[in-house]
Structure formats: structure tokens, C-alpha cells
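hiii so um. not sure if this is the right channel but i have a protein structure encoded as C-alpha cells and i wanna go backwards to a sequence. like what aa goes where. can anyone help
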């Protein structure tokens, strides 16, 4: 059995929160570079190059990639041989406490905008810490703790959608709806997008799958040929919309479309689309 402390988790989260705000993953930068090289519209090419310059400045100057520094979504994979060590100052701590402390410290020390309200409909008062985070926890084989942190902007998240199809729906109907969702997202969600798609499960699992799909490398297709081919078809049709970078026209409306699937009930076909903007901010660390 291996023990991990409160401070180890909190420090890892604190560091990730700041890194995510300042540094795009390498696969996202590579996708933007490829898009800029292949873009036929001069204004769109200029915008893509400006996005690349923005990412370079953010990384070098340690300033946020976007003024919306996002809601923090944390995926934690806990090896079954991991235990959490008691903390003398806080003997009853749980994983959520360490995540909350790390997010609050990262956003405070990084001078990052705090965007979370404590409740959704009445007073909507800012928590002033950018907490709580949304946490997804799972157990895996091994003695490591993997933490993946995503900063999800409000503009793109607001354009995400869910639909429960009839189980008789075919691939073409599903593709058409997904493309329509992307088209309706438009310039408000800051294209070029990364489009995460969850197929199957139930109401909530399909939405979770659509967010998990965003964590795949942009050049990594689905392992099943049917869905890998569907990803290619989706990306082609999305880019043929002509929406382009920042909604100003061009070949590059999306950098990638990624599908994750799960078994579902015979009477159901849940489909969720999670829209992500070009500032696709996520990183991982393993303790």
C-alpha cells in the first residue's frame, strides 16, 4: 500500500491550475499549426496565426490564454493500492478538500479570474476562490494517482447539447444533429472547436463521455474503426460549414471531433455534444 498526503494532492492541483491557464497542450498547438498551414482563407490563416502567437505569449509571460479562466473540471484516477495519509492539522480530510485547497491556491497565486457562483439561481454570489471544482473520481489498477485538470470556459460550455434519440436512429441522423449543434454554437463559442461526443450510457453518462472525449490527443482516433470513420466524417462536415476561426469564415471550424461510447439500454440512444473552444486547456500529472 502506498500513502499520499493532502499536501501532495493540493500542490499538484495548484500547479496544474496555473499551468493549464498559461500553456496549451502540444497536440493542440500542432493542430493549430497544421490548420494555419492548410487554411485557404487569408483572414482565417491570420487568425490562426494570431491564436498561435497568443499561446506563445501566454506560455512565455505566464499570462492567461483567455480572460475566462474557466470552471475547473478534475478527473482523478486512483490506483487501488493508494491510501490517503492522515493530516495532523486536518485529520478528517477527504479528496475533495485537497482539490478545493489546490484550486483556490492556484487561482489566487496565479492571479486568475474567479468565475464560480455558490448557487445557480437566487443570489449567484461569487465564491471568490473559483471553487468548488467538478470532480470525477475512478479507481484503477496500480499505485499511482493520476490527476487531469481542465479549465472549461463558459462560452463554449453553454453551447453543449444533449439529445435522446430513438434507438432506431441511424448514423446519418446522429451526425446531422451533431453538425447542427456545432453550427448553432457559431462564433459565440470561439471556434475553431474541439468537439467531444458521448454516445450511449444513459442521460448523465453520455454527457460525461462527451467531456472525457475532449481529453484524448487530437490526433488519436477512436480505437473502433466504425467510430474512427465517424469522427473523420464529422470533422469533414463540420469544417465544410465554413464558419471558420472566430466565426469569420474559412476551412477550420473544428480541429477535431472525438467520440467516446458506452453500452446503453435497448430503448435508448443518448447522444451528448460538449463544445470546446480553441483555448483547449488541460494537463495531467501523476503522483
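sure thing!! here u go:
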Amino acid at each position: 500500500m502506498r500513502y499520499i498526503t493532502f499536501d501532495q494532492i493540493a500542490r499538484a492541483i495548484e500547479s496544474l491550475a496555473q499551468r493549464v491557464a498559461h500553456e496549451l497542450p502540444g497536440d493542440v498547438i500542432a493542430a493549430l499549426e497544421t490548420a494555419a498551414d492548410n487554411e485557404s482563407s487569408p483572414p482565417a490563416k491570420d487568425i490562426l496565426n494570431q491564436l498561435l502567437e497568443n499561446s506563445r505569449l501566454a506560455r512565455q509571460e505566464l499570462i492567461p490564454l483567455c480572460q475566462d479562466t474557466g470552471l475547473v473540471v478534475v478527473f482523478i484516477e486512483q490506483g487501488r493500492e493508494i491510501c490517503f495519509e492522515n493530516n495532523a492539522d486536518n485529520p478528517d480530510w477527504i479528496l475533495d478538500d485537497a482539490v478545493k485547497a489546490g484550486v483556490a491556491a492556484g487561482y489566487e497565486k496565479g492571479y486568475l479570474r474567479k468565475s464560480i457562483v455558490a448557487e445557480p439561481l437566487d443570489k449567484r454570489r461569487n465564491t471568490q476562490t473559483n471553487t468548488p471544482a467538478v470532480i470525477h473520481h475512478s479507481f484503477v489498477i496500480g499505485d499511482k494517482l493520476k490527476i487531469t485538470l481542465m479549465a472549461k470556459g463558459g462560452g463554449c460550455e453553454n453551447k453543449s447539447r444533449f439529445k435522446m434519440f430513438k434507438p432506431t436512429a441511424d448514423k446519418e441522423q446522429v451526425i446531422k444533429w451533431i453538425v447542427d449543434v456545432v453550427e448553432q454554437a457559431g462564433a459565440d463559442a470561439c471556434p475553431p472547436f474541439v468537439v467531444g461526443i458521448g454516445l450511449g450510457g444513459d442521460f448523465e453518462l453520455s454527457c460525461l463521455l462527451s467531456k472525457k472525449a475532449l481529453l484524448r490527443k487530437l490526433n488519436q482516433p477512436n480505437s473502433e474503426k466504425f467510430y474512427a470513420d465517424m469522427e473523420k466524417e464529422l470533422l469533414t462536415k463540420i469544417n465544410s460549414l465554413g464558419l471558420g476561426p472566430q466565426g469569420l469564415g474559412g476551412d477550420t471550424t473544428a480541429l477535431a471531433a472525438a467520440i467516446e461510447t458506452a453500452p446503453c439500454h435497448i430503448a435508448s440512444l443518448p447522444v451528448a455534444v460538449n463544445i470546446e473552444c480553441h483555448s483547449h486547456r488541460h494537463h495531467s500529472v501523476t503522483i
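oh and The CA atoms of residues 73 and 255 lie 21 Å apart.
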